[in-house]
Write a structure and sequence with these properties.
single chain; alpha/beta; seven-stranded mixed sheet; three-stranded antiparallel sheet; 15 strands; 39% helix; binds pyridoxal-5'-phosphate
Length: 374
């Protein structure tokens, strides 16, 4: 069976995790958290990184920093994971769903302006498949209207927009290290704070609303409760796993890129024949090979292809049921026709298996099987 995704675990990960168990700190912010944070800082070129228990946590931390209040409107794509929207709805925020640009499956930047109202507080972008949105355009709209921008870069660790690293492109960037992402800690994530004004609050919110960090740094005698926060810091044992993965950053990236390129050249003829559409990467982006997707002509063809691949022992999956047409989205008053492009492309998109330890032979077998089906 060719799985859809598979973590790449070597002796280094095992050594670091075992070593972390004999460390002085098993809870948060021990030596391995410092190492993983430093490695991530080098990759992203930003020192203001907060390791969290998940990408979901990073989005919640960002929402607390945005200070979302009941009734605030947030412009967000519907083609995303529930966490992007839960994060601000937990604080009473209201999602205003924006249709997608089918080329990237990201939010269509040209529609954002028309969704802004006096109640709009922020724009939450999603870098689908690790490809950033056109962030210069998004930031300009935000600036013009006094909005904050949170970038759900859960899938985009190691990607770039016009030469600038994903995660650093807006007020807040949110990464995930879930086991299905490029670099993993089982469950884990990180918040990148790109506006120094929020750094102190980020430290406090991450530590259950206390100034414990200042106490650890010796800046105050004892720490106490300052604001509403939560427990967002991961165990140092998990940080050890991430540190090993980030030590292998280039190796994992190169292996994924090689599989991505194999798919892209191997499926070119089928695209030229009009049988499918390959994933599109805009000129401005350097992606991290998080995902390889194709778009089929109809939903029926996609279903048949999924079955055919399954019979050949290949796991290929479609992706999000758009949030606006989910049971929760309907309860908010949305109907499926309201975002026609999201609806249409979500029904036809198919993700192919892609993981660092996948062989070129396996990728070629997937391509051959798709060719046979067509
Ligand atoms: C994976 C993912 C998340 C959630 O990350 P977790 O670490 O699983 O909480 C959020 N948004 C997007 C776009 C994701 O792909």
């Amino acid at each position: 069976m060719i799985p859809f995704s598979k973590p790449s675990i070597t002796q280094l990960e095992k050594d670091y995790v075992m070593d972390s168990l004999s460390g002085a700190v098993l809870s948060g912010d021990g030596e391995y958290t410092k190492l993983a944070t430093r490695l991530l800082s080098n990759i992203v070129g930003n020192n203001n990184i907060f390791l969290t228990n998940s990408g979901t946590d990073a989005l919640e931390m960002a929402s607390l920093l945005v200070n979302v209040k009941p009734g605030d409107e947030i412009i967000v794509p519907s083609f995303t994971f529930s966490s992007t929207v839960n994060a601000f709805m937990l604080m009473g925020g209201k999602p205003i769903f924006c249709d997608i640009n089918p080329l990237t499956m990201n939010m269509d930047e040209t529609l954002i302006d028309s969704l802004v109202t006096p109640k709009t507080k922020a724009i939450y972008t999603v870098a689908y498949a690790g490809v950033p949105c056109d962030m210069d355009t998004v930031n300009l709209i935000a600036q013009k209207n006094g909005l904050l921008v949170v970038d759900d870069a859960a899938q985009a660790v190691g990607s770039y927009y016009k030469g600038r690293p994903a995660g650093t492109l807006s007020d807040f960037g949110c990464f995930s290290f879930h086991e299905t992402k490029n670099y993993i800690m089982g469950e884990g994530g990180a918040l990148v704070v790109n506006n120094d004004k929020y750094l102190n609050a980020a430290d406090i919110i991450r530590e259950k609303g206390t100034n414990r960090k200042e106490a650890i740094q010796g800046l105050v005698d004892k720490y106490t409760w300052h604001m509403v926060g939560s427990s967002y810091l991961p165990s140092d044992i998990l940080a050890a796993l991430l540190a090993a993965q980030l030590e292998r950053f280039d190796e994992i990236m190169e292996k994924r890129q090689s599989i991505w390129k194999t798919y892209h050249s191997g499926l070119q003829v089928l695209e030229e024949q009009g049988k499918l559409t390959r994933q599109f990467i805009p000129e401005y982006a350097k992606h991290n090979a998080h995902m390889y997707f194709i778009v089929l002509p109809t939903n029926q063809v996609r279903s048949k292809l999924i079955d055919y691949l399954k019979k050949s022992n290949i796991s290929a999956y479609f992706h999000y049921v758009p949030l606006h047409s989910s049971p929760m989205g309907e309860s908010l008053g949305y109907t499926s026709e309201m975002l026609p492009k999201t609806e249409d492309y979500a029904e036809r998109l198919l993700r192919l298996p892609l993981y660092a330890d996948m062989t070129k032979e396996e990728a070629n077998f997937v391509i051959d099987t798709i060719n046979k089906f067509m």
